[in-house]
Amino acid sequence: MLRYILSFLRIIATKMLQLLSSRKHLIENVLRIYIKTTSGSTLSIEIDPKYDIKQIKNLVASKIGAQPEELKIIFAGKELGDNIIIEECDLGQQSILHAVKIKRNVPTDQSSSKMKPLCEILDDEMFSSNITNSRSNSFSTDNEVINISNSVMLENSTIRSKKIHFYVYCPTCKDLKQGKLRVRCHFCKSGAFTVHADPQNWIHVLEPKQITGTCENNPELCKDILQNKEPTFAEFYFKCSEHISLGETDQAVPLDLIRPNLKQIQCMACLDTSDTIFAFPCPDDHVMCLDCFKQYCLTKLTERQFWQHPEYGYTLACPTGCPDSFIKEIHHFRLLDDENYNRYHHFAAEEFVLQSNGLLCPQPGCGMGILAEPECTRISCQNCKYVFCRHCRQGFHIGECDVVENNDTAGQNFSCESDMNYNNGNSGELASRTTIKIMTKPCPSCKTPTERDGGCMHMICTRAGCKFHWCWVCQTEWTTECMGDHWFG
Amino acid sequence: MAALPRRIIKETQRLMQEPVPGISAVPDDSNARYFHVIVTGPEDSPFEGGLFKLELFLPEDYPMSAPKVRFITKIYHPNIDRLGRICLDILKDKWSPALQIRTVLLSIQALLSAPNPDDPLANDVAELWKVNESEAIRNAKEWTRRYAMDN
């Protein structure tokens, strides 16, 4: 009897274990996705990545009371054909598919490529060449670039997956990640949208209104936008492929200059060939590996050699001096660590103030940006309450500014009697201020304190936005007289 | 001291295996970032026949920053001052990490063939080069004979 009970228990235990392990197996393969319908409802369904679209249609149809044949499944700007397997679609957990009910049962004349998901159609080589910034280039040049990369690809096609790699800065992961391309209606922002053509390059993806499409969400409204008879356009955006989607607003910034190194180009700095590269926006394929790019940014940041570009912001160009090679998407500088990215922001703000003819408060530890009327010489800092003279940056005074002699001992030659705040500063600030005063002379143009650590008397302002040529002796613009009289002091 | 970057190792190896004609650059035994350089005076220049010693140093953030190069041998040249400092744009604001030790030294050799008195560093030399070129060239030859030959 006991033996019978024991064997019975054993059987139960084994069955339970089997059940548990099979369930575990099931859970591993489940993809939870959302289906948005045009009626506005969202279904949450669990599917096997091995399902095809036909199975999805059956699942959805039963839930919304429609026939599977009446449904279109749209994902990333594409209507997915019945034979597409979910696995092929670059879907992550909690991705959103759109189910649209076809009103008239007209057989669609879509080509087979259109029925494939976007990620299967886009090739890496389309996006790897530097054709984004050369819009003025003739078409033949573009084709040439593509042909070159195609021939290289042929050799590598056996080893290399052709699946496109996009890189993004993900604000959720706070890091560089691989990204996924997604599409929505430019007008109503709905994802129930199909593109009329596939994007062929970065211009199509990054610039607005490049590719037209059909909005399934609100076809009547979006068909001809605002009676202008303009069809609606695709709006491309990116998601991080490494965290579970946090909904439709969870987006990432495309870093279009970071690319897979399909052409196997050497980094110009370390001469290594790495898999992922930063491609400068110049026609000559100047690239750096990501580590060297970070180092390049850091060096240029420390030297204050970033440029305030009127359109793009505080940015860098190709280090070899290629024309018009400024980095447009300044989120590329997110590759800097947090501390240096904060410095980047700080310097960018300062440069913006200076280029707007503003001033920075000279008080150590303050540096507040101040935009004052050009004729106003008495500048008052709202932040630290320091009141100073626009011209000599010393405490405000009446009458001429004193010329500060470089070799003077600390604090002797202050021009102003009314400088109340100066003595209020703590000793550290006082010491730095004194040191700066002894060691440096201001650039006659932008007043940047400048130290001369050797060489001739010909100074070039170190601030990238200034670059004023001046004479260390005269403290005015550098002239041939300076060269003749006291070039070397 | 930090490990020597692969870029410097690669460049050094290439300088040894495929030296640039007329230029030798040998890293110092105790400091692989410091190079002893000898540039031969180019043919058909006042520096022909001379062997010019230079020192070249790769700073910590090379190749993001330019190498520091200086003539040790005295030379009469409008773009090189009495301390041997060289006025060459690629050593200053035109530096790019795509340039290398070899390209820098080639540019310096080219500067010996084509002095540029309009962008001078040694003013007196430049002045003479502009006013009385033949006398300047005579001086340059004399200095080459006196300082850059024999030893």
From TrEMBL, chain A:
UniProt domain RING-type: residue ranges: 263-489
GO biological process: mitophagy; negative regulation of intracellular signal transduction; positive regulation of catabolic process; protein ubiquitination; regulation of anatomical structure morphogenesis; response to stress
Record bears the keyword rRNA-binding: no
Subcellular location: Cytoplasm, Cytosol; Mitochondrion
Annotated InterPro entries: BRcat_RBR_parkin, E3_UB_ligase_RBR, IBR_dom, Parkin, Parkin-like_IBR, Parkin_Znf-RING, Rcat_RBR_parkin, RING-HC_RBR_parkin
Catalytic activities: [E2 ubiquitin-conjugating enzyme]-S-ubiquitinyl-L-cysteine + [acceptor protein]-L-lysine = [E2 ubiquitin-conjugating enzyme]-L-cysteine + [acceptor protein]-N(6)-ubiquitinyl-L-lysine
Predominant subcellular localization, coarse grouping: cytoplasm
SUPFAM superfamilies in the cross-refs: RING/U-box, Ubiquitin-like
Entry-linked Gene3D superfamilies: 1.20.120.1750, 2.20.25.20, Phosphatidylinositol 3-kinase Catalytic Subunit, Chain A, domain 1 (3.10.20.90), Zinc/RING finger domain, C3HC4 (zinc finger) (3.30.40.10)
Pfam families in the cross-refs: IBR_2, ubiquitin, zf-RING_12, zf-RING_14
The protein's annotated pathway: Protein modification; protein ubiquitination
Keyword hit for Phosphoprotein: yes
Active site residues per record: C456
UniProt keyword terms in alphabetical order: Autophagy, Cytoplasm, Metal-binding, Mitochondrion, Phosphoprotein, Repeat, Transferase, Ubl conjugation, Ubl conjugation pathway, Zinc, Zinc-finger
GO molecular function, one term: ubiquitin protein ligase activity
Annotated ranges, domain Ubiquitin-like: 31-100
EC number in record: 2.3.2.31
GO (cellular component) term, any one: cytosol
Subunit composition and interactions: Forms an E3 ubiquitin ligase complex.
PANTHER family associated with the record: RBR FAMILY RING FINGER AND IBR DOMAIN-CONTAINING
Family: Belongs to the RBR family. Parkin subfamily.
Summary of the function given for this chain in its UniProt record: Functions within a multiprotein E3 ubiquitin ligase complex, catalyzing the covalent attachment of ubiquitin moieties onto substrate proteins.
Name recorded for this polypeptide: E3 ubiquitin-protein ligase parkin
Organism encoding this protein: Sitophilus oryzae (Rice weevil)
Gene name linked to the record: LOC115879800
Automatic annotation (TrEMBL), chain B:
GO biological process, one term: protein ubiquitination
Pfam families cross-referenced by the UniProt entry: UQ_con
Keywords of this entry: ATP-binding, Nucleotide-binding, Transferase, Ubl conjugation pathway
A cellular component term, taken from the record's GO annotations: UBC13-MMS2 complex
Catalytic residues, chain numbering: C87
SUPFAM superfamilies named in the record: UBC-like
PROSITE patterns documented for this protein: UBC_1, UBC_2
InterPro entries: Ub_conjugating_enzyme, UBC, UBQ-conjugating_AS, UBQ-conjugating_enzyme/RWD
UBC core domain span: 3-149
Keyword Signal in record: no
GO molecular function: ATP binding; transferase activity
PANTHER family: UBIQUITIN-CONJUGATING ENZYME E2
Family to which the UniProt record says this protein belongs: Belongs to the ubiquitin-conjugating enzyme family.
Protein name per UniProt: UBC core domain-containing protein
Protein species of origin: Acanthoscelides obtectus
